[in-house]
UvrABC system protein C (Marixanthomonas spongiae), 598 residues
Amino acid sequence: MAEASVQLQISTLPNSPGVYQYYDKNEKLLYVGKAKNLKKRVASYFTKQHDNARIRLLVKKIKTVKHIVVATETDALLLENNLIKKYQPRYNVLLKDDKSYPWICIKNERFPRVFSTRRLIKDGSEYFGPYTSMKTVHTLLDLIRGLYQLRTCNYDLAEEKIRNDKYKVCLEYHLGNCLGPCEGKQTEADYNENIEAIRNIIKGNFKDSLNQFKNQMKQYAADLKFEDAQRVKEKIDVLENYQAKSTVVNPKINNVDVFSIVSDESYGYVNFLQISFGSIIRSHTLEIKKKLDESDKELLTLAVIELRQRFNSQSKELYLPFKIETEEGLKVHIPKAGDKKKILDLSLRNAKYYRMERFKQAKIVDPNRHENRIMAQMKKDLRLSEEPRHIECFDNSNIQGTNPVAACVVFKNGKPSKKDYRKFNIKTVEGPDDFASMEEVVYRRYKRLKEEEQPLPQLIIIDGGKGQLSSALKSLEKLDLRGKIAIIGIAKRLEELFYPDDPIPLYLDKKSETLKIIQQLRNEAHRFGITFHRDKRSKEALGTVLETIPGIGEKTVIQLLKQFKSTKRIKKASFDELADVIGTSRAKKIVTHLQEAE
């Protein structure tokens, strides 16, 4: 498919947080920005008059809009920062400096210190973040220090130096903020237990710490130290409301390529995320047209080679959804949980959004492609011998056995064809017999189509289980159509699809487009049938009431229904409106009778 116009690209953007990138006609990156709602933000560039000459010039040059979907605004902010630092786009005058976001560091040393920093030093220390707000970092560190006594000095607490009494405890020890490991007053094992608890707090696992806080608060309350209990309660509130760190960046994930794939009948969509020291520095989705019904495995194998060559990737580590053949020397992970799985899920999410956009663009530019894709999918899902371009669905309606009716709705190319809908009064069945009613209407429908040499559907859907399906099959046999038209029944409870001569029902994925179209057909048949049933009951009830009025006969009732179309309108009609149709004398009798009945 040719590159879509900018307006078309904007019309199919998702209403999600993310980062957008503007490129010129030469595929040169002009600008990177973040958005709470990608579609609204990008559209605003093209719908309003800009006072800033720089932005006016930028908008004139934009030919391609690319984007990366993320989970939250915070993620978008971090990712925007990473991309601007990496590519230095011409029109990004802000964030081009060396500003970096704060991290929390657990230092690689005996009795580790825990502190905030903006510099990442590769000395084996652990870094968590980055955080978009220094206030968040301070809040977390205050919480940690309030719960665990940690050293703040930068002494080298080697075992030998402590044993030789090299250091003396400082004021922090006397204030109760440190337990004095410098004099051997706290063991390394005890200190490291606290560090493990702190790791959990920073990662967002507050369960153990919250329990400890709550016990501490209860103890203060029991000792009547209510001010101390209130201070601890405030910390609990902050902990409970605190959001865990961003999933976009994890400093342990360094120099990795992430690939994911989604596909349909005709195309595969492979997303590529490039991670450099925990930051996403590139996202690209490749659309691959299938030629020989290739599997996802084959498509992903080709895409990994193509994308790594195109972007000259030197990464030796890959995160993939499943095993594929790769060149020698590459380390492949298939993540199942944790931070690695979150990044793989993010890649898959971008691939899905890209696929949705292409569908939306295709719908606008080439509606037939969308229709063809859905028809091919339905043929495959429902195990049909041909595409169901013409589908008919039947539903019975009767309440307490009165006024039995049936409805037939028609879909062509996956869309309702309302001019072809048909209503049926049940003629040969006495009482509420759904099976016999279904047999009658299916017979009448296709007998007529055959007699009039009208085109027959490729698929018939019966709203009901095995019983109704068997009844419909009898009619097709009588008309010598069994085996010539595919027919299935759908049971309401579990959305089971029943096939003739197959005792085991078919269950479709609840999110599949095929099931959604079948449900739409069933719901439309139900709505159409119920409406017809109610109208019939109302007319019959009103007809009976009107005909009991002295001087009002069947012809008068028919006259009124022809003019007003429904019972509601007759009841709401004024005396003058009724008189215009049936004369003043009969109108007066009807109005008087209806008023007395009310």
